[in-house]
Each structure stands twice: as structure tokens, then as C-alpha cells.
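Technical annex B. To support the medicinal chemistry partners, we prepared a structural model of the target in complex with benzoic acid, based solely on the information shown next.
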Amino acid sequence: MERRAKKRALRAEYIYNGREYMRDYALVYGKKIEDIVKVDELSTLHPSVELEDLGNGSILYPGFINTHVHLEFSSNTTQLRYGDFLEWLYSVIEKRERVLDEATKEVMSKACMQMLESGVTGFGAISSYGLELEVCRQTPQRVTFFNELIGSIPSAADALYADFRDRVERSFECAHEERITPAIAVHAPYSVHPVLLKKAVSMARERGMPLSTHFMESRYEREWLDGAKGGFAGFFEKFFNTTVPVNSPGEFLRTFDGYPSLFVHCTHMNEQEMRHLEKEGHHIAHCPRSNRLLGCGRLPLERISSPLSLATDGLSSNYSLNIFDELKAALMMHSGADAVKLSEKLMRMVTSQAASAIASEAGVIERGAPSDFALVRLPSMPQESELLALHTILHVDRAERVWIAGEECL
Ligand code: BEZ
Ligand code: FE2
């Protein structure tokens, strides 16, 4: 049985509730957040709780959420080729066995710990093979376990689907452990046959599972899906002996209609697709360092109205899973945006908006939400509270303390 956390209270100079910064508040918490009150009202409203003051420079954030990571590729440091998506993909195919073999439980747990140290209390794990399920069960974080389906060749479809279904069922066997949420990921429009795609989307709808897909990550994907042209033409000829894409972008997108899902990357999405995602209430995961390193360009944040989350992607296309590294990169990459406003947006993208992208109740500090917190400390408090998000991104590299379900775990 899960241990019941004692009722306690924390006071920080600021509490960020997922939308705004609140000064001089205390929160009363057990496993869930019970109340948020002005510090001077605490002793009247909750006379018996013990208050811990987190001290000068403290900001208490909801635990951060990294919506998209591939733990199975965590052993990669210098093995894969960066710079160009297609060259990277060839290197993944060439080195896959070795990279997967070397991703031992120890290596994958260390990747989870790197996220935890940066204050990440929940993540979306894209699982190609189910190799990280045990690590995800053991890590303290909440994990949305996205079982991935891939396969564009009809002759292999039945076997690939059967394997996928087995992995989904295995993840459901852990669903009673409240920190694992079984979910589905469809790899991409160029790599999943429409029959498989429809089956996976139907399964997600029927079982109410979070659903995600990579979408329009590279210019190769754009050129291939729009006109069977570009670098993917040679790739599909070589590996799949085909000259025709399995999906059109429009048909692919329409399969998700009526079931808000998480679309990852979207760096090469056109205007019509942007409006379609918006209309259907889909979320977008933005992975700036991965996009940069694979030569996929910049997501035009200023043109996106869909809710956004920020994610590291895997160590297969990044050099760390530290969410503060990702925040700093995003701040610098979108150099045309106002730094103050962008920082505020980015903090929502790793808290409240990330939570809604994976249908999690975490990501906010409000009554009834899980007690998942990341304490960070600024060297000194800025006078203007509008600068709190910016200075958090600039001056913080790791969380000082982390709580999940009211238990301190860092
Ligand atoms: C496939 O399995 O069909 C596939 C995998 C990676 C890229 C493209 C297609
Ligand atoms: Fe990915």
C-alpha cells in the first residue's frame, strides 16, 4: 500500500501556479495539494500544520513535465550522426543494435535521474520496444508510457501490430501503479501504414489513452509526403523498395480528428496544417535542441496558436535531458521574440501546458493537484516580478529539492 504523506506546509518567496507567480503564499499539502493561502493566514486557517520556510530566493514550481523523450536510446553520446535528419536516420539504422544494447537499465535510470535533478517530475516516454518499462516503473517520476507503432510495409503489418499490442498490454499491467499511464505513439506519417494508423488511433480512442505522433519534423518528410521527392525518395527506394508515400499529410491528420493528440516537432508544417491542429485542439511538443541538431530548423512559435509544450526528445538527438538546458536553448533560438514574454510562455510550456498535453493533473499548483514540486533558488529576487521566468531560465541549472506525490525524492 502507498504510504500516506503527512500534512505539511511550504512557504516560498514565490509560488508559480502554472500560469502566474504568487508572492508570500504557503501551500498545505499531503499527497495532493490541500490549500494555498496567504502566509499570514496560515496559522488561523490551518493551526496544526507545520510550516517550512524555503528561504530567500526560493521559487516553488509545479514539477516540470518533459512530454517527449526516448529513453531506449539513452546510451548515445557520439555514436549517431548529427547535422542532417537523413544522415542521422541512416546512422540510427546502422548503429541501432549497439545503441540499444548499451542502453542498460543503469544507463536509462541515469537519464531519468538527470531529468529529476532538473526538476522533471513527469515525462512522456516514447517506447519503440518496451525495453524501458521496468526502469519507468522504478523511477520516482510519473510516466506517460507511449507504446510506439511503426511500419509502412503491408507484409510486415500484422507482425508489427501484434508486437505493439503485446507491449500495450504489458504497459496496462502496470497501470494500477498510479505513476504509469499507458499511451500510444504512432511513429510518423511516412512510416506507419494507414491501416495500422487507423487501428492504433481507434485503440487510443476506445481505451481513452493519450496519443502522440511525430509530424513534419524535416524538410525530407515535407518533400516526400507532398510529392514523393527529396532525400526520402532514395531512402525508401533503398530500404523499402517503394516510390510512393503511404499517407498524404491531409489524410494522416484527419485520422486524429475529434481526439486531441500530441504532435511532436511540426517544424515543417504548412499554414493549413497549423490551422487544422488548432481547430482539432491538438497539442504541439517543441524540441528546439533536437530540431537544431538534426538540421530541422526552427518551429515558428510566433505563428502557432495551438497549446505548446517543451521537450528534450531523446539522447539520440540531444546532449542532455536537463529541462533547463532546453529552456535556455529555446530562449536563445527564438531570437526575434521578446525575451520576457517568451520566458513566461516557456515556463507554461514545461508546467500547465505540458500537463494538458498528456492529460495529467500535475503541472499546476492548485488545490486538488498532485503534490509534485520543484524548488529552485535565484541568487537574489529581481525587483520586477515580470522577470521571474526569464531569471529562472538564465540562472537555474538544477532543482534544489523535488517532491512527487508529497514525498521528497531529490
Ligand atoms: C518503417 O518501418 O516503415 C520505417 C521506419 C523508419 C523510417 C521510415 C519507415
Ligand atoms: Fe522523438
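Notes passed to the chemistry partners:
The domain at 8-63+363-408 is CATH 2.30.40.10 (Urease, subunit C; domain 1).
The two ends are 22 Å apart (CA to CA).
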